[in-house]
Specification:
Elements: H1 2-6, H2 25-34, H3 36-45, E1 53-57, H4 63-72, E2 77-82, H5 85-94, E3 100-103, E4 116-122, H6 131-139, E5 142-153, H7 165-183, H8 192-201, E6 206-218, H9 223-237, H10 248-258, E7 273-284
Parallel strand pairs: 1-2, 1-4, 2-3, 4-5
Antiparallel strand pairs: 5-7, 6-7
Helix pairs in contact: 2-9, 3-4
């Protein structure tokens, strides 16, 4: 426990411009519906018990809150915290009765130390300027034997144009440069999924484990997968914002693949095959 007490972070601000007014609830909800089978499987793998107390730190739109409650039953306690007002409002609409929700910075001192058996924190650590300090703060909330579980999907999918590796490389490079310019980030700042074990090793947590699953989809797509890929990636992440980072030829090809009215629309192709990794690293007090 001494390592948890001694580490002091100089900054707790967000790395990606997060604040209480920011709203990307639509993208969060679509991702959770898309990745629900894999996320629920990872939660089941944690072997939670009836009556346990669980905190979802960075709960977003709240889908995981009900999944966690299923594991600890009505005798357990499930709490969600998120900075964005719109995300908490969305979570309130879907959270089961008895789930507690708070709009706050997850690094605020809201809870007594040793209040939870599990802190579940997914696609959140990459938003922190000092992720080690963030994990140390969350670990202080654990009871003896409790665990912090930090999950992160890969920043860029591992494959989405199975038929064209060259264009895939060009698009990935364009996305990196876009984020570097928009948020003043470098490659080091975009490596969150690669660094989870290293982050946990810098804390006083023990029995560190890691498990990576592949979110894999192929045509024909189920509706949840099509909705997420179409809105969050093929329209939301790409589109006009990547034009400055691609040649005219590459941009025009990408635009056709992203256009649902185009004969070459990627999500309607019979050879569409999508891969993205999701890593969950955990450690115990």
């Amino acid at each position: 426990m001494s390592g948890l007490q001694e580490y002091v972070s100089p900054r707790y601000d967000g790395l990606l411009g997060d604040n209480a007014a920011r709203d990307y609830s639509g993208k969060l909800s679509k991702f959770n519906a898309f990745a629900a089978p894999e996320l629920r499987g990872l939660i089941r793998h944690l072997n939670l018990k009836s009556g346990m107390h669980v905190l979802d730190a960075g709960c977003g739109t709240g889908e995981a809150l009900n999944w966690l409650l299923d594991e600890v039953s009505s005798s357990g306690r499930v709490v969600g915290v998120d900075m964005a007002a719109a995300h908490v409002a969305a979570a309130r609409l879907r959270a089961s009765q008895g789930i507690e929700l708070h709009q706050a910075n997850l690094l605020d001192r809201m809870f007594e130390p040793a209040s939870f058996d599990l802190v579940w924190c997914v696609n959140t650590i990459n938003h922190l300027t000092d992720p080690v300090a963030g994990v140390i703060h969350l670990a202080k909330l654990l009871r003896d034997g409790g665990r912090v579980a930090i999950g992160q999907s890969s920043f860029l999918p591992d494959m989405y144009f199975a038929w064209d590796a060259r264009l895939e490389r060009r698009v990935n490079g364009a996305v990196r440069r876009y984020y570097q310019d928009r948020y003043d980030l470098d490659e080091h700042d975009l490596k969150a999924v690669r660094a989870l074990v290293g982050i946990l090793r810098q804390t006083a947590l023990r029995n560190i484990t890691v498990r990576t699953v592949i979110i894999e989809r192929m045509s024909p797509l189920d509706q949840a997968s099509k909705s997420y890929l179409q809105e969050a990636i093929f329209r939301g992440t790409w589109g006009e914002r990547l034009r400055p980072y691609l040649s005219t030829v590459d941009y025009d090809e990408l635009a056709g693949l992203c256009d649902s009215g185009h004969p070459n629309y990627a999500l309607n192709r019979p050879d569409f095959h999508f891969l993205q990794t999701f890593t969950l690293a955990s450690g115990e007090i």
